Each structure stands twice: as C-alpha cells, then as structure tokens.
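Case study B.
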Amino acid sequence: MEIFVCVKRVPDTGENEIELDSGSNGIKRDDLVYSINEWDNYAVEEAIQIREKHGGSVTVVTVDNEEGDEVLRREMAMGADRGVLVMDKAFEGSDGRGIASILKAVVEKEHYDLVLTGVQADDGAAQIGGLLAAMLGWPYASIVNEIEILDEKKIRIHREVAGGNLEVYEVDLPCVLSVQTGINEPRYVPIRGVMKAAGLDVPVYGTADLGLSPESVGEAGATVKVKNYFVPEAGDRAEMLEGSTEEIIDKLIDLLKSKGGVR
Amino acid sequence: METVLISPAKAAIFGIPSVIFSILIPLIGTLLFAYIILKRLTPLLKAAPDPRLDRLINRVFQLFKFAILQYRHLRYPVAGIIHILIFAGFVILSLRSVTLIMLGIFDGFTLPGLSGTIGNFYTVLKDITATVVLMACIAAMVRRGLFKPARYAVPSKYGKGHAGEALVVLMLISGLMLCDMAFEGSLAAAGVQEGLTTGTALPGTGSGLAAKLFNKLSLAQLQNIHLAAFFFHDLIFFFFLCFLPLGKHFHVITSLPNIFLMKLDKGKIKPVRWGVEEPEIVDLESFGIKKFGDFTWKHMLDFYSCADCGRCSDQCPANAVVRPLSPRFLSIKCRNELFQNYPLIGGTTQDESPLIGHIFEEDEIWSCTTCGACETECPLLIEYIDKIVDIRRGMVDEGMVPQSLQKPLHSLERRGNPYGKTPKRRIEWIKELPEENHVKIFQEEQTANTLYFVDSVTSYDDRIQEIARATARVLMAAGIDFGILGPAEKDSGHEVRRFGEEMLFLSLKNSNTEAIKNSGVKNIITSDPHAFNALKNDYTDIPPVEHTSQVIARKIKSGEIRLKGVENGDGIYTYHDSCYLGRHNGIYDAPRDVIDAIPGIKRVEMARCGDRAFCCGGGGLNLFYEPVEEKRMAQVRVEMAKEAGANIIVTACPFCMVHIEDGIKTSGLESEMQVIDLMELIDHSLITE
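Model:
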C-alpha cells in the first residue's frame, strides 16, 4: 500500500502565548514554537501502522517554506519512508483550493493507493481533504477513526457521527480520508530519531517540478482572502474568572454549585 | 587419633571398598557443578559490557560490610538473625564439610592448620555451630511453613508460591547437620562403649545428643550409622551444590561476586552503553534494553543473585499502592527467562523477542519513581534503577511513551520546561518579591559567586514559586550573594534522563552547563533535590552543588542565621525525607538539624523515615504520568504522618510539596494536616533586624 500523508506545520497552541498582530490580519509569529498539526500526526501514525501490517511505503508531504523541513524529518523519524517539501515563492498566500491543487500535482507525480489528511489543522479550515479528493476524482471519507484494509482494492472505515454514533463504510481505493484524533496512539519521536533523520534526503518540489503555472496558485490564484483576525469581545453572558489558579478553581466550583451544575 | 569404627576411607560396602564411592561422589558432583556453572555463565559472556573492577579497596570493604558482616540483614530482625546464623554456620562448617569429604578418601584427614589444639577447638566450635544452624533451619521452616510472612507471598499473576524450594533447601541444610551429628555421635558412642577417652562429643550439642541416643546400640549398628551418615553427607552436599544454581539459592554462590561488583556510585545513572562517549551514542544501532541480550552481564548476575526475600517489594512504594510493579518479580521474571533461554540440557534459544509485551508490560516499567527504596533494602545490592532506566531508554527509542508524557517531553525539547511556557516567564517568580529582595540575573550582566539553580517546577508552578521566594529571602538573610540564570536556565533534565530520553537530557545538560560556565559562579545552591542530584551526579565540569538544607544548616550553626520561636505552637512537625536528598545522596541530618534549630519546635519521626522513607510519588515527569494504582503514594504518606502524631509535614523538595499537598486534599485531611517547605519554615522564623 503506497500511502501519501499531507501534513502541516502549525503554531503549537499548547506552548505559545498567542498574540494578535494588528498589522497583518494574523498573529505575532516571532516567538512562536511550531510543531506538526496534531490531526496530521495521527494520520502519519495510522499510515505507518498500515505499512507495518500490509507493507508498502509512507510519504509525508507538506506545502511550506524551508521551516517545513523540520516537521517532515520528525515524521520520518517517526517512521515515514519519505518526505517531500513542496516549496516555491509562487505558493505563498495560497487559499485552500490552491493548496489542494498543489497537493494534487504531487499525488499525480507518482502512484498512490491512499491519501490521508488530518480532519483539520489548528489554524486551518478543514477543507484540504475534500478539495483534494474532488480534484483527483477519488472517493472521500471524512472524520475517520478506524481504517481496516480489506484487500488491494477496498478498505473499510469507521466514521464518527454526532451523538457518539459510528458509521461503517466500504470505500474503493484509491481514495482520500481525513483522519480524526484518537484513531490510534501516535508513537513518541525520540530526539535521537530526530537527530538521525537530519541526515536524510528530503526532495523539494517547486512549480516547475509539478507542472503548475505560478498564476494558478499562491496569492494570484487565491479566490478566498483573509480580511481580518481578532479575538471576539466577550458577550454579556460570558465571564472571565480571574485570580490565582486556586481562586479560579474555587470561583468555578461556586459557580457550578450555584447554577446547579454540581451538588 | 584412635578410633573404634572403620573410617569410610577403609570400609567396604557389599564387598566394594567404600573409598571408590567417596571418590566418585565428589568427582561426579564437582564435574556436574562445573558444567552447570559454565552453562549459567554463557549468557553473561555474551552480554553488554559493564566495567566493575575499579576502586578495588573500596570493593573489598563493601564485600566485608555487606557479605561477611551481613550489614543489611538486621533491617528485618527475625529473618535477619536466622540468616546471619545460617550464613555464619556455612562459613564455619565449610571447613568441616571439606574435611568430612576428604575423610572418605584419606583416613584421619585434617585440613592444614586444623590439627592439635586449634583442631580440638574447631571440633567444639563446629559441633556448637551445627547445632545452632539446625535450630535456625527449624525456626526458618516454622516461619515459612506456618507463619508465612506476607512478603514471601506470590501474587497469582506471577505463578505459584515459592515456599517449596525454600523448605527443600532448609531440609537439605538440616540433613547436612544431622549427618555430621550422626557421624560424630556414632563415633563418640562407640568410643564410650570401648572405654576410650578421646573423641567424645560435647554434651548439649547435636553430636552429644546423638552419642547419647546411640549409646545402647551395638558396635555393628554404630558402624553402619557412621558410614551411612558419611555417605548421606557426601550425597546431600553434592546434590545441594548442584541444586544451588537451579533457583534462588544460586545467591549462596553469586552473592560474593555480586556484592564485590556492586554499583558504587549512588544517584548516578549508567551510560547508555559503557565505553561509548556522548557524541557517538547517537550512532548506536539501538538504544537501551529492548531484548534480553541487551542487559549487561552484571544485571544478569543480579537476576541470578536474587534470593527472593521480598524486601525490595516490601519497601517499594509503587508495589504498596498496587501499581503493576514489583522489583522482586522484575528480577525473578528475568531469571526465569535466563533459565529458559539457556537450559542446562539442549541448545540455547536466541530469544530476540522484545521484553515489553513478553515479560514486562509498559505500565510496569513506567510505574517506578526511581526512589531507590528497593536498592537500599536489598541485602545482595541488586540494582533496579539502572535497569528500569535502560528498559525505558529502549521503549523511548521505539516510540513507546505514554501519551500523557509526550507533551511534556516535547515542551522540554522546545521550551526547556515540561509546561510549554516561554523561557522569559522563568523569572516570573521574582516579580512578587519586594524591592529590597532584588534577585540578580546573570544574563543581564550581573555577577555573584553563587548560583541559585531554580529548575522548572519552582520557576513556573504557582504554589512552588513561593519556595523560590522563601529560598531567595533566606539566602539573602544568610548573607549569600547569589544570582539566577533566568531565561537561560533550562530544566535540569533529572527525570528526562530517568524516563529514558537520554538525548534530550544531554541537550538540556549541555545547555545548562554552558549557561552555568558563562555565569562564572564558584558554587551552586538549589532548593530542588532532583536538580541537586542532576547537577551533582549527572553533570560534569560544573562548580560544586549544595542543597539549601545543607547551606542553611551551616549558616544556623555559624550564627549567620538566627531563628525566633516556633510560629505555630500547636504544630507537631515531621520531616518527610526526599528520596534524592536521602537515599540517593545520604542527606538525612541537615534538614532535621535546620528544623530542630527553631526554638520550641516539636518534631516527631514517622515510622518510615531516613533511608526507609516512603516516596511521595516522584519528581519531574512523574507529575505527568497517570499510573494504574489503588491509592496515591502521597495519600499513604500523609496517613503515615498522621499516624506518627504529626499535623505539619515539612518537605525539602518541590515535588514532595506538590504531591503531599495533593495527598492531604485527596485524603480529606485539609483541616487536620498541613505541609510546609523547609525554606518556607525558616523564612517564617527568620530574625531580621
């Protein structure tokens, strides 16, 4: 099974104090630490587990600048066979459709049976999986939390649906799946692995390698544009608890008690 | 010496000269024993390296202390006394056994130096000794068979009980004693019948009783008893010798080398692979222990040496709160594996199967807090922490790390602390200090002779920051000119190393080492025993390190710190030993001296204190690991303090503070029990003009 996993580097929300940048419709990025988008990490783990069971290879791909290299190497240290950094000045400012069309070109460069994406990215819009499948003309299933390989042509997947229910589908290969967290327990990537992966070869693809015209991607090709980025003001019924952790906990317990949440 | 009975060297059995048997039995027995030992040594010869032949004088001293003097045995008085008696008997009677075996070949044989007066004295001594050993064996059998102390019990998941082997061995030893008594008694009885004055047995000893018992028997009967006793002794002796390496009594043979080759450096962790230095270890094919053959030969010798006494697990806090870890069975499972893979008959199995999932489960290995209670208790000096850490290294290398630990490890990698907070917030704790308590930061080109190494939990945790502030005030009151590394400080990496992420530890260590060197300080103080142990035992080439308790104890003694009467007159204080101050670094008195220096303070000791202190739940990454357990360790510890009659627990470690505070809450004892850090206690008691 040849598996293609789309990954993205995102600011680590757990480790950053995110501050807004009034100038750029975004956040201040100077002091941020980045890591792989959590959903994508589950997708890579799932791909590695499928390969361990059924053979084949795992290719991780990201559309990024040179910083994306680190994320790819980390996933290679985890067990992915290959990493591909898709980088070109022309790709900057791409909207979701742009990114999907770039990824489509990478997928079509070689033969793949299965494409995995995360359900969404911390800073994303949860659209790549669907767009990419549509562009490839492949079947698509989203929010997948179990994958079972039936044979070379068919897989069975479980999907989470509202209310904690599960749906089971059979899907023809090749296909695109967006993977939900909790599908597996991603393995730890030891620093030694990261250090070893530093010496691996990571090819870089640009517009020329992918046969894309610069006008169709990047800011030029984007039809969806970010206009603003802000923290919404707290509404009337929202209340921020303040004080030390202990005080906040006490206030929260009082509130829960008074509102009947706990007895 | 004139005797009336024919010696086994000259007698005949069914017409065959019995000397043939007295040669054949030792010959076959010795050859068989040599074969078994050779088989047992095979895996050790193929195992990972582990240099242990340094500091020989020290090793001889340790051998004398722990093996000959049985130093740790009296920690369990009943079993200890019985063991010491049997062991002393073994030592004394070994000469007798050799003599007896040789008597079957050479009539009238005596060991060189054991003739004449010394020989007579020895005969009396060995008669008494044999009697004492026999009584000790009976006491041990009664203990194991009837009283069944709880620590010998085998939980069902580890198979059947082990009392059978113990009883068999006790019976074999008793058999040896009885044979000697019968051999001597028959000779003495015959001598009395023939009116000889020599060769009488000492009344009151086993031999004396046997002589009395036998005095009505005919000479022919006595002759038969004499020969039978001799050959039973021979047979039991060599059966016992070959039986020893088949089970837990292998320790009779391996304990001497095992103690001689013990780990001499407490608090340190073994390198990933002996002989491979820091930059090269990245290139090792594999990291840590993944399969059986990855253990070092000394670790395998440990497995052979375990006497199954259960002292380790009896003291193990993880075992006490029913986590899936029992150090005793870690050794026993591994010994069984060794026996199985290297059978005495037939080829060896090259077992390449991973240990995790085969003989260990993941949670079992993560359950250890590295408190060291097991290692402090083991009479045979078996090591556990290095093995656990090595197995964890293997798990980390394979990516087998609990999800709850992955996040803090990533944060440590990126931010230098397990909370994922930015380095600039490492100095947040100083902001609440008043103007007159200005703390220097080396990064900002301020200088001082002393570095206060704060470490992560004390820098970032809301509650623990108070310990940092108390420490700062106390150090200032003591007139110590100090500074902090500030944002340049990273986590000491103490638990990072002990959780098996060696490369991450090395990067933290290297970063801190550089920052410490750049600061130009002459000495280091820390209020965190884990940082203390890391800086002292894991780091190299940095200035000397002390824990605050040591510094303040000295300053109190010198009068540089003066203390006022105890703040809380109703308080009954108890000191909870930190594992990394106490067991790993031998600092038991300094914190107690500091507490006792407060005028009017009432302090009691918990039943488990000093080197038997019960771990609170562990430092560093232990805060992020959620094990399966029946109760929190800290809860057990709080109950122990309550039982001792204390209402205020004094800690000298930030992690003890976190856990004990938690334990008080989860036990619902907030109204009865309090916890305070040693530095906070001193801070409250300072006399400042």
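Chain A touches chain B through 24 residues (CB under 8 Å). The remaining cases will be described in the next quarterly update.
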